[in-house]
């Protein structure tokens, strides 16, 4: 492993890096409409689309079809432009992102109404039977290692979304960790089906960068309902890896749907309850790997959630606990970057346990708690289908009360509060607690704070 890692670090020192690794012309990059798309066909599609793109510094990639997104992503990169990846594809969010990049445009494979400013519809991806099938005539483009190829935006769950630039070198570095971990779990070749959008950094890492930089093929769809997930898995030969979130996994488990054999499941975007992980592993006969990362850092650690294990850091990653969070040192970062997560290191710093986020830590009248732990206690109440605890802004004397939004059709507010009193200090009981029909989760299950506050005010 050390030899491989040293070799990889040498590769990252190069001034340019390939757009497509594992670059044999016949290897399958994607599965679309039940048919394989080869590396040669894929690169021909990229060249076809790149030739049609307008000039500009950046483009919002709005493609819904994952293969179309993959093609557009690489075409934008070939033009020397950056992919803008807003946390939401809602029209206002797209407009706000584009306003920060004068001359930018949007690209997608669908007819949108209303369309964003400067919307560029992608050309139809034609059948390319003439694409080279041998090494002769098959050339993988090289991309400047320091070219900014994407700007990822945080979800806004703690405030206003922020952007983080990603160079092609940083994506190569972060993907190396994901490739190593998945190779050890399922082997060197596998097929990916993902329920998460490619615009989200987790979806980008696991369903865009893996097929580009590993010997991996991705299903072009983004299945949502359990039956659609099963159908998508049946369309790839395997070994199959399912990229999912806790909220999608719970729906899959509760549906009773039968899945084709899968080699592994990968989850992120929200904490994975150990009981759900155990149930999923038993139900589907495959290990569930939970990954830890952020838009800022990409994935840096992993664990088996079913065993409630500590997190194990990827090779080359080091954590440095700080009073207000944790500084991360990683090959994909130019320097130390501090996250709000509080950790306790173990095993000479190679493993750690999460103790919540700095912004989630509460102190009222000298007593302490965390919003994450309070939310877990809320969700443990029988009859609570979904819920979240959040801290309000300070009142006239500066006290920041705790509030809750809860989905529990068969319970009333007083019953929920009585159950919480069994395990929660009175100071941290939510006031107000509001029953709602559903929480405003985005495509990956996250909860933007602004939407929670608006819902809380409306429910009041």
From TrEMBL:
List the Gene3D superfamilies.
3.30.300.30, N-terminal domain of ligase-like (3.40.50.12780)
Question: What domain of life does the native source organism fall in?
Answer: Bacteria
Q: Where is the AMP-dependent synthetase/ligase domain?
A: 24-312
Alphabetically ordered keywords of this record: Ligase
Enumerate the InterPro entries for this protein. Answer: AMP-bd_C_sf, AMP-binding_CS, AMP-dep_synth/lig_dom, ANL_N_sf, ATP-dep_AMP-bd_enzyme
An example Gene Ontology molecular-function term: ligase activity
**Which Pfam families does the protein's record reference?**
AMP-binding
Listed PANTHER family? LONG-CHAIN-FATTY-ACID--COA LIGASE (PTHR43767:SF8)
Could you tell me what this protein is called?
Answer: Acyl-CoA synthetase
Q: What's the source species for this entry?
A: Dyella soli
């Amino acid at each position: 492993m050390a030899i491989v890692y040293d070799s990889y670090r040498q590769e990252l020192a190069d001034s340019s890096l390939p757009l497509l690794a594992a670059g044999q012309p016949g290897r399958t990059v994607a599965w679309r409409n039940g048919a394989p798309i080869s590396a040669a066909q894929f690169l021909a599609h990229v060249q076809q689309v790149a030739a049609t793109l307008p000039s500009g510094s950046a483009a919002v990639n709005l493609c819904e079809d994952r293969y179309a997104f993959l093609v557009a992503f690489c075409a934008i990169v070939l033009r020397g432009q950056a992919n803008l990846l807003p946390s939401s594809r809602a029209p206002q969010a797209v407009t706000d992102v584009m306003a920060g990049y004068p001359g930018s445009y949007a690209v997608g494979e669908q007819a949108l109404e209303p369309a964003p400013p400067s919307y560029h519809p992608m050309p139809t991806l034609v059948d390319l039977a003439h694409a080279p099938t041998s090494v002769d005539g098959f050339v993988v483009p090289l991309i400047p290692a320091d070219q900014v190829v994407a700007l990822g935006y945080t979800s806004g769950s703690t405030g206003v979304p922020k952007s983080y630039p990603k160079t092609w070198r940083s994506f190569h570095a972060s993907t190396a960790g994901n490739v190593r971990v998945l190779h050890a779990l399922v082997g060197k070749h596998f097929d990916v089906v993902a329920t998460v959008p490619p615009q989200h950094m987790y979806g980008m890492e696991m369903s865009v960068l893996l097929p580009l930089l590993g010997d991996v093929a991705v299903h072009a769809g983004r299945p949502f309902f359990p039956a659609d997930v099963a159908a998508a898995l049946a369309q790839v030969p395997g070994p199959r890896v399912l990229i999912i979130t806790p909220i999608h996994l719970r729906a899959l488990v509760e549906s009773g749907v039968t899945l084709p054999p899968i080699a592994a499941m990968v989850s992120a975007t929200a904490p994975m309850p150990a009981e759900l992980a155990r149930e999923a592993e038993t139900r589907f006969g495959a290990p569930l790997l939970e990954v830890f990362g952020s838009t800022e850092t990409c994935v840096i650690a992993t664990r088996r959630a079913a065993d409630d294990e500590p997190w194990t850091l990827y090779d080359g990653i080091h954590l440095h606990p700080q009073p207000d969070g944790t500084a991360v040192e990683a090959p994909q970062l130019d320097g130390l970057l501090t996250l709000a997560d509080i950790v306790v290191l173990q095993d000479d710093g190679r493993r750690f346990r999460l103790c919540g986020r700095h912004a989630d830590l509460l102190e009222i009248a000298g007593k302490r708690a965390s919003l994450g732990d309070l939310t877990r206690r809320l969700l443990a109440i029988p009859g609570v289908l979904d819920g979240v605890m959040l801290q309000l802004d300070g009142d006239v004397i500066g006290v920041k009360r705790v509030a809750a939004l809860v989905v529990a059709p068969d319970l009333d507010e007083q019953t929920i509060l009585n159950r919480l009193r069994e395990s929660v200090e009175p100071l941290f009981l939510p006031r107000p607690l509001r029953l709602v029909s559903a929480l405003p989760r985005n495509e990956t299950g996250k909860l933007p704070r602004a939407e929670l506050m608006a819902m809380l005010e409306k429910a009041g």
